[in-house]
Write a structure and sequence with these properties.
heterodimer, A: alpha+beta, 3 helices, 31% helix, B: alpha+beta, Arc Repressor Mutant, subunit A, 3 domains, nine-stranded mixed β-sheet, three-stranded antiparallel β-sheet, 17 strands
Chain lengths: 96, 484
């Protein structure tokens, strides 16, 4: 059984910057607990001699040459920003 | 070299480990084709990949991999033929993906070690734990607006090598020597330019204290240490702070602290506490990086001569002292200049003095680097040759050298123009000596009656008469003969 409780939900929501109404925390906790419990059935399989697998196709990564082929369109990359100025993205002050 | 902090209740020892973030020299970014030049207009070197637009996929830059392997070999480290990329998740305005692509579980480089040179002439091995490749974040500018932060993503996605040391460092001096050595090696390799003031090399310092010989204490990580001097200051402050707490019976809390160079102190970064939960997981966009041994061998076969090898060679070929050699090789351009001079001189000791003492002294005085030295290595060789073939004396050479620094002229021309050629034939020297002896008959008598010290007076007179151009050995020989 997983150890998903309301505290875990609050922590994960905070790390993911998702705001959750305190009234909804137990609702989400139940749901996520259900999902995690379902996945945890996998722990019934004996994997002692199986290497961890992150990708199915273990051929090596594709690489590109070190050429400059991109960039140079400041207007385009800042176009979606809620606020920009002098070519910068502008955000609320984040500093200690 | 041991370094002890004397507390009120006894001695303490610092234990320090470093994480050096070194920007990889490459034309384009780690996972995108945008350029990496420093100082470009904001957001002008940003692709949709770097700005983390939806649907964009990272494609690994071959050159960055090669640079990391080269660096690993230069730090005598294990190259991992299998490595993989992971996502390190956190939110910050200059990290548009919401995660940094890094290598937690399978870094490209494993254990290595380097030798650092300390000022007392001793050396010490410092272990390298690992090097991993990762993306740099963008840059936040906080001081342009009272309530806003300006974000420039030009740096976002540039390749970094994080070089993690073992906790082998025991003093601020060792840390300084270690940072300098890593910087020198990276510069020799051409894998990072090492410019700390442009931020292309930055470090985080892990500091703890313990009673000598006991287990490691709890450490604090100090961020924002952007020069060798700041590193030394931050360590000194932090170690003293920890000793103070422990001696008052307190305990050290493991935390991230920020070095404030203005106040010369470290302080807690509370915002980092929660953020430490990075929820790493393998990046599903990127298959593992699998290298062939033959690929690594090919890079190994083309490695440049590294500072330690050059140092050993300078000691052997040119008879340098170990510490002098380590100072000389610390800067590749200076080492190259020295070698150009030394290999073209008969006496390498003369080359060492003229390069290390005279030239470097003159450059330091005028705040110039070796690259814009007014005296080329060819001209310095010529000057030394003039001393070696007795055309000018060592003393006159200093005047010629001062003139070379001033005007950049050829030493032979200066000697010719100013008539500085040494007088080495007795036929021109003898009349001068005879004149001096006949002008000073009283002193000649005194000398002959046993006042040996007057010999120096006669030498001085000859030198004065000849404007320092007389060959000192010949002056001595002729004087001795005539005063008998």
């Amino acid at each position: 059984m997983s150890s998903i409780d309301e505290k875990t939900i609050e922590k994960v929501a905070n790390l993911a910057r998702i705001e959750i109404d305190p009234a909804d925390v137990s609702y989400f906790a139940d749901q996520i607990k259900g999902v995690v419990d379902w996945i945890e059935q996998l722990s019934e399989v004996d994997t002692d001699n199986v290497k961890p697998l992150a990708v199915v196709d273990e051929t090596s990564i594709t690489m590109r040459e070190d050429d400059i082929t991109d960039g140079g369109y400041m207007e385009d990359v800042t176009k979606n920003a809620p606020e920009s100025a002098y070519g910068f993205y502008v955000v609320p002050k984040v500093v200690e | 070299m041991s370094y002890i902090i004397e507390g009120r209740t006894g001695n303490w020892e610092m234990v320090i480990g470093l994480e050096i973030h070194a920007q990889v020299i490459s034309n384009s970014k780690l996972f995108s084709g945008s350029p990496t030049d420093f100082g470009a207009d904001p957001n002008s070197q940003v692709s949709f990949v770097d700005a983390a637009m939806p649907g964009m996929l990272p494609v690994l830059n071959k050159k960055c991999v090669e640079q990391a392997v080269k660096t690993g070999l230069g730090l005598n480290a294990q190259i991992n033929l299998y490595s993989a990329f992971d996502r390190k998740n956190y939110f910050y305005a200059d990290l548009p993906q919401g995660y940094q692509i890094s290598q937690l579980y399978h870094p490209i480089v494993g254990n290595g070690k380097i030798e650092i040179d300390l000022e007392d002439g001793t050396t010490k091995f410092i272990g390298i734990e690992r090097i991993h490749l990762e993306q740099d974040a963008g840059k936040s500018v906080h001081d342009q607006h009272p309530t806003k932060t300006y974000v420039d993503l030009n740096r976002s996605g540039i390749a970094l090598m994080e070089i993690v040391s073992d906790p082998d460092l025991r003093s601020a001096d060792e840390v300084a020597a270690y940072i300098r050595k890593i910087r020198t090696i990276l510069r020799y390799l051409g894998t990072c330019d090492g410019n700390m003031d442009e931020g292309s090399m930055r470090c985080d310092v892990n500091v703890s204290v313990r009673r000598p010989g006991e287990e490691f204490g709890t450490r604090c990580e100090i961020k924002n240490v952007n020069s060798v001097r700041f590193a030394s200051q931050a360590i000194a402050y932090e170690a003293a702070r920890q000793v103070e707490i422990l001696e008052d019976g307190g305990t050290i809390k493991q935390e991230t602290r920020l070095f404030d160079a203005n106040k010369m102190e470290t302080r807690s970064m509370r915002s980092k506490e929660e953020a430490h939960d990075y929820r790493y997981f393998p990046d599903p966009d990127l298959p593992p990086l699998i290298l062939e041994q033959s690929y690594v061998d090919a890079i190994k076969a083309n490695m440049p001569e590294l500072p330690d090898e050059k140092k050993a060679r300078f000691i052997k070929d040119y008879g340098l002292k170990a510490y002098d050699a380590s100072v000389l090789v610390a800067d590749q351009a200076r080492a190259h200049y020295f070698e150009e001079v030394a290999k073209n001189c008969k006496d390498p000791k003369l080359a060492t003095t003229w390069v290390s003492v005279e030239l470097f002294g003159a450059l330091n005085k005028s705040g110039k680097t070796i690259e814009d030295s007014p005296v080329s290595s060819d001209y310095l060789v010529e000057l030394i040759a003039l001393i070696e073939d007795n055309t000018i004396s060592g003393r006159i050479a200093k005047d010629v050298f001062a003139e070379m620094i001033e005007s950049g002229k050829k030493p032979g021309d200066i000697v010719e123009e100013k008539g500085l050629k040494q007088i080495t034939d007795s036929s021109s020297l003898d009349p001068i000596i005879d004149q001096i002896l006949s002008d000073n008959t009283d002193k000649v008598e005194e000398y002959k009656s046993g006042k040996d010290k007057l010999f120096g007076f006669f030498v001085g007179q000859v030198m004065k008469q000849t404007g320092g151009k007389a060959n000192p050995k010949m002056v001595n020989d002729r004087l001795k003969e005539k005063l008998q």
